[in-house]
Every structure is written in structure tokens, then in C-alpha cells.
Amino acid sequence: MTDRRQVIDILNELLRQERGSLVSHLLDSTLFVSRGTTDQDAALRRIAAEIREHEGWLAETIASLHGGVAPSCGDVRAAGLHYQEVHFLLPLVIENESRVIRRYEAALKLLAGEPGAAAVASRILSRHRKHMAELRAFVGAPSPAS
Known about the structure:
This protein is mainly α. It has one domain (about 5-140): Ferritin (Up-down Bundle), CATH 1.20.1260.10. Helices cover about 70% and strands about 0% of the residues. The protein has helices spanning about 5-20, 20-30, 40-65, 85-110, 115-140. Helix 4 runs antiparallel to helix 5. The longest helix is centred in the middle third of the chain and has 27 residues, at about 40-65. The chain starts with a helix and ends in a 7-residue tail after the last helix.
């Protein structure tokens, strides 16, 4: 059984994962986007908007548990994203998204005793899995069987 403080800590860790998303950092970078990748650019912008939504959902859930949102710092892996081709960065984004999915899967096991928090985490995990399938399609990589 996970107590309220542990649930808040888990949610803050998930929030750090969202804030560290490379997709969000891509939009803050100057990327080379050729005509052939405009669909990818639009998808990355949509995914980044959804990630911002996830951050809000997590913050609201933390507040509903009378917790505080922990501060977080940027991910140093995002420092070298400027002036890169989108197709070059997609494997890095996929790797990052895989890590986020694993963290959510692990967190869900610990959040089972807190239905509200588990529902939010489950909804976000579902979206990340869709993001992963879309990102893999852009690079032609097969999606692993779930």
C-alpha cells in the first residue's frame, strides 16, 4: 500500500519525466525541417502540446492530494538539439519516449491504491504509447508487440 506522500513523490517523478521530454525541447530548438518532414513537424507539435497537457493533469492531481509540485531542471541531453535534421533526432526522441513509458508502467504498479492518480497515469501512458507508435512509423521502425 502506497501512502499519500509516496503517491505525490511518484507523480512528481512522472512530472519530471514529462518536463524532460525531448519532444518539448525540440520545439524550443532551431531544427532543419525539409518539405518532406512537415507532417513530422506537425505531429511533434501536437505531441508536445499533449505533453504540456500531461504536465497540467499531473500538477492538478498532486494538488488534489494536497501536495506540492517539485521543481525540476532541464535535461542536459536536450542541449545538442539545435541545427539538426528532424530525421536524425527521431531515434533519440524514440529512446526518450521508451524511457518515459517504462517509468509510467512502473509507477502504475505503485499507484494501484490511489485510483485517481492511477487513472491519470494510465490515461497519460496510453497517450505515450500512441506517440511511440507514431514516432516509430516516421522512422519505419516496427512497434514492439504489447
